[in-house]
Amino acid sequence: MASSSADSSPTRSWGLKEQRSVYLRWFYLADDDADGRLTGKDALKFFAMSKLSRDDLKQVWAIADSKRQGYLGFAEFMTAMQLVSLAQAGQDISQDTLAHADLGTLQPPTMEGLEKKLKKSAAHKSSSDLTGYHPVQTSMSANWFNSKSGKKIAMKSVTSIIDGLKKAYIEKLRPLEKTYQYNDFVSPLLTSSDFDAKPMIMLLGQYSTGKTTFIKHLLKSSYPGSHIGPEPTTDRFVVVTTGPDERCIPGNTIAVQADMPYSGLSAFGTAFLSKFECSQMPHPLLDHISFVDTPGVLSGEKQRTQRSYDFTGVTSWFAAKSDLILLLFDPHKLDISDEFKRVIGSLRGHDDKIRIVLNKADQVDAQQLMRVYGALLWSLGKVLNTPEVMRVYIGSFNDKPIRETAAGPLGSELFVREQEDLLSDLNDIPKKACDRRINEFVKRARSAKVHAHIVGHLKNQMPALMGKAKAQQKLLETLDEQFAKVQKEMHLPPGDFPNVDEYRDTLSAYNFDRFERLHTKMMKDVDDMLAYDIPDLLKQFRNPYE
Fold first, then answer.
1. So where are the chain's domains?
2. What angle do CA 214, 219, 222 make, to 5 degrees?
3. Which residues lie closer than 8 Å to 100 by C-beta, 6 or more apart?
4. Can you give the pLDDT at residue 411?
């Protein structure tokens, strides 16, 4: 059997540089179109040289493609090769095996016939090709959004699940949204960066509940521009994300950057953008997740101070983009103010993303903590309209040691376990990011369908000639009845309909007579997309060994 290893001598230590060099040659061979993505079809041919069983290779792919993107980048390819090497050595194929393996002495796997293929490839391609090859995942899908609306995109251009969602959006969902002005009523049109954005975690809570300290605790350092204190210190929305150096980018600048998914925030005006910034810093955690630090929600007399922008509208916008929403409380701030109640109400439809964090729990003793926990659940029960009990994490999420004098040994053990559970929840976010994108895309398509039905219905109710203003006013006054008619006629779920009062406010600025009638072909395209295109896409980019 021909070995792929560059050295057949006894086991030796080889560093990341040597591993990267060897695996880069392999990845270059396997990546036919040099787009930095190894799809299932390419992997079937390349991984077959390992002579592992199909079940083993199925497990290798599942671990390497933990984010379920439908392809392997170079980092995932290296992980796959390390797993293959461990499997050939007789070890179990699991995440734990990889985590405890000594990768410094782990030699490349044996790949039958690979050396011959490498030599053949070298004969056709010059060494400068490999030298200039950087396996960065490049996709032409960003350019699709600049092309003419409705233009068909070749299926061969789709190399991932996200690419497939972009294609479906551009060809079928976006035309419906534009025709019925969905962007004015519900959500701005999507851009390429909205699909490619890293998972996002938003932190909400009253001032001094530890939102900024929580981010600092996870990063183990302060982010640029952060301020921590007992008074309301964070007076703006701050997106904490990765970057080559530490710097703060103003809101007006970040909102016009095409590679950032924040262009939709321009709709909230300059008053908001002056209270918005992006804090960038190099950090391994931020390579996978972004955080949104928010101003403290006002309470008591402070609620009388009017903000210069739509605070609940902005939180609702970020909630739609976020993968997880953390509501922070501390034992001394359990009251839910009117503004906080409106903010929680703006999270409607995102209940599955919400987690409750009872922070600074070591400031009270065990007996008081039980009472505080009960009071918190009682307060939340009045504002969260859900029969399920929200998951509450209890702990003290900062860099200081737990105050055992207050918490006691039982409290300390509880806080450690709760922190481990929360960190486990956060670690799962990148793995679930692709599934979340699909989920949010389907939710948006269902919402756009309902919106189109409503607009089409209102157009049909308008008279042909006389009394248009009077008819429109009557439709606005009886909007809840119109919703019921649309729901009954079209057999639509009531949960998919928007808030009647908010919808009425937006509708009042429009002339119903200028709305488009319902286009049955557009609706059929979206129905087909949900019924056939999305399932086919998931089937195409599933584990190739299933």
1. 16-114, 161-189+439-540, 197-400
2. 80
3. none
4. 64
* Residues 174 and 149: beta-carbon distance below 8 Å: yes
Domains 161-189+439-540 and 197-400 share a fold: no
DSSP secondary structure string, 297-335? BP-GGGGGS--SS-HHHHHHHHHHH-SEEEEEE-TT---
- Give the type of residue at 14: W
Hey, what are 134's tokens?
Answer: 């950087």
CA 467 vs. chain centroid, Å, equals: 48
Beta strand pairing status for 237-242 and 247-250? unpaired
**What does the pLDDT read at residue 1?**
40
Report residue 223 as tokens: 């982010």
Summary mean pLDDT of the chain: 83
pLDDT surpassing 80 at residue 153: no
pLDDT per position as a tens digit, 205-256: 888 788 888 888 888 888 888 776 555 555 789 999 998 899 999 999 999 9
Half-sphere CA count of 2, side-chain side, radius 13 A: 10
Q: Is domain 197-400 annotated with CATH 3.40.50.300?
A: yes
- Give the sign of the dihedral formed by CA 160, CA 165, CA 167, CA 168: positive
Which one has a higher pLDDT value, 18 or 262? 262
**Token pair of 139, please?**
């996709």
Question: What residues form DSSP beta bridges with 393?
Answer: 357
Which residue from 403, 432, 459, 368 is spatially nearest to 179, judged by alpha carbons? 459
Structure tokens at 361: 């729990």
Q: Is residue 335 over pLDDT 50?
A: yes
What pLDDT does residue 280 have?
92
Q: Which residue has tokens 């090709």?
A: 129
Q: What is the pLDDT of residues 293-309, one digit of tens each?
A: 998 887 654 554 567 88
Residues with Cβ within 8 Å of 404's Cβ and at least 6 positions away in sequence, in order, are 362, 411, 412
Whether residue 415 contacts residue 407, with contact meaning beta carbons closer than 8 Å, is answered with: yes
Contact 74, 80 (CB under 8 A): no
For residues 545 and 45, what is the distance between their CA atoms, to the nearest angstrom? 12
Which class does domain 161-189+439-540 fall in?
mainly alpha
In CATH, what is the architecture of 16-114? Orthogonal Bundle (1.10)
Beta strand 200-205 with 237-242 is unpaired
What local confidence, expressed as pLDDT, does residue 11 receive? 46
Please compute the mean of the pLDDT values over residues 431-458 and round it to a whole number: 91
Q: What is the pTM of this model?
A: 0.81
Tell me the two tokens of residue 66: 């933990």
**By C-alpha distance, which of 437, 460, 365, 470 is closest to 169?**
437
Closest by CA to 292, choosing from 335, 261, 270, 325, is: 325
